[in-house]
Amino acid sequence: HDLGWRPTPEMYKGRRDYRQERIFTIDPTTAKDLDDALHIRELPDGCVEIGVHIADVSYFVKPQTAVDAEATMRATTVYLVDRVIPMLPKPLCEIACSLNENVERLAFSCVWKMNKDGTLAKKGKREDVWYGRSVIKSCARLDYATAQNIIEKKVGNGEPLEQLDEKLWPSSRRPTGIHTVQQVVADIRLMHQVAMARRKLRFQNGAIALNGIKLAFQLQDGGETPSLCAPYPIRDSNKLVEEYMLLANYLVAQRLITHAGSLALLRHHPPPISEGLSNVVQVAKEGMNFQIDAASSQSLQASLSRLGRECDDELVIQCVTEMLMTPMQPAEYLPAGSADSEVWRHFALNIPYYTHFTSPIRRYADVIVHRLLQATIDGPAAVNDFDMDENAIRAVCDNCNDKRMAAKAAQERSDRIFLALYLKRNPIKSALGVVLSVGEKTFTVFIQELGCSAKVFVDECKNLVDSEAFSTSGLNPERRIRLIRKGTSCAHWSQVEIKVFTKLQVSVECKEKPPIDIKC
Q1: Other C-beta atoms within 10 Å of 50: how many?
Q2: What is the dihedral of CA 348, 279, 296, 116, to 10 degrees?
Q3: Which residue of 100, 146, 352, 474 has the fewest C-beta atoms within 10 A of its own C-beta?
Q4: Cis peptide before 380 (omega within 30 of 0)
Q5: Is 35 helix (H, G, I), strand (E, B) or coil?
């Protein structure tokens, strides 16, 4: 799959050599564009060295070239259910830049020292970090499922190589060369230990995680028909990679702010829209007598943690999470010089600054970040002579923001279309849903097993039910719909009051008329 391509010795000049280091990748099973690789090394003083090695895209994609112009315009790779529209040409994103196993590759590395309790080790007053171009040779291409099996000790417990379970750890994903299976096992388990300590610290310090359910599809008939549709599992192995990527992005943002000043390309996340947030607070108070403190991301996270402890109904917890996602604003790119440092903040991560460094194969903002980072390494003159001023960086940020939102909308629409196609063949007769909102003649139901919501139009059920919409009295009137069953065909119920958090059994199928969608 690499067409025999390899970097030339000329390309290695001035790079730190990590080819002997035990580096590997952990990605989705079908991934072809491997942006990031990791290493961990236990140090004599009890600390660990973490290396995040990112594809050196900016080495291949130079400013003012045709490939750069095209990547600038595309700004992002778009992942649809049945296809990928890459930002970069395939020879770059799947071969020259992709950190494939057992081949030498050019990388941009961020290597730091941290304690096993998840805190960063200091060198004087600052963190102990090295940034720079490198050359690596990944020893294994792991996927999340395999890494999870290793974390859970289902595999890699000292059994002889020939007895390793092929299902739990496919031989194509095992290390080769000078590194052994047991060494990689030890690395993953240590990485997991440190990452979970880091994650715990982040949430204690007020980071918030609002994870909606993402659907995964299995396609047949030449990739046209989904034969399987299930929520995509977020495992500890996903969280392990996420923790180190978040840290690398944070450390690079820090470097850009201190060394590139107003040119630093940052990613900020504004706080949620307060009116929408207070609606959710009110609904939770009235619907389930639960008090959400939405004053800050820290208090919001504390409220969600308390909900998790006090409420043993997974569906209601997921429902509140879905509601909270509505008033959240999207994160955006901006040049540091265009806003006050208070605006740089990232609400969800609850940190003062952040950027994107770890995915330059699929995001153009990361390519600019790589170029800026190299300029800070080359020295103040290189920053002064950087070929983009703040306005040019702002223009790139604006385009990246627009294309990211468009890509997200396309991805969500693609998910919805393929879900509808799946339901056309496999309609769901009865699924548990919970009401998210109530209108005059409609109400929205969240269906947990599909991780999505759908509107129920009361008028479409006229032959089955009579309905009346009304509002409760009091300071904060709440809209409700009463459904009264016609006839006596069902003994289960004669009437039901629809309000937020009402649980219902709903049927889910594909809409008959375009546009293609699902209906309850």
Answers
A1: 24
A2: -40
A3: 474
A4: no
A5: coil
- Residue with the larger pLDDT of the pair 309 and 265: 265
Look over the chain and give the mean of its residue pLDDT values, rounded to a whole number: 92
Contact call for residues 106 and 7 (beta carbons, < 8 A): yes
* pLDDT tens digits for range 297-346: 889 988 988 988 888 888 888 888 888 998 999 999 999 999 999 999 99
- 346, β-bridge pairs: 269, 351
Is the Cβ–Cβ distance between 336 and 263 less than 8 Å?
Answer: yes
CA dist., res. 71 & res. 69, Å (int): 6
Sign of CA dihedral 100, 103, 106, 108: positive
Residue whose C-alpha is closest to residue 262's, from 332, 338, 333:
338
Q: How many C-beta atoms lie closer than 10 Å to residue 475's C-beta? A: 4
Please state whether the predicted TM-score (pTM) of the whole model is above 0.85.
yes
Q: How far apart are CA 188 and CA 372, in angstroms?
A: 31
Residue with tokens 């715990």: 200
Please give the single-letter amino acid code of residue 113.
Answer: K
Question: What 3-state DSSP class applies to 408?
Answer: helix
Residues in the chain: 520
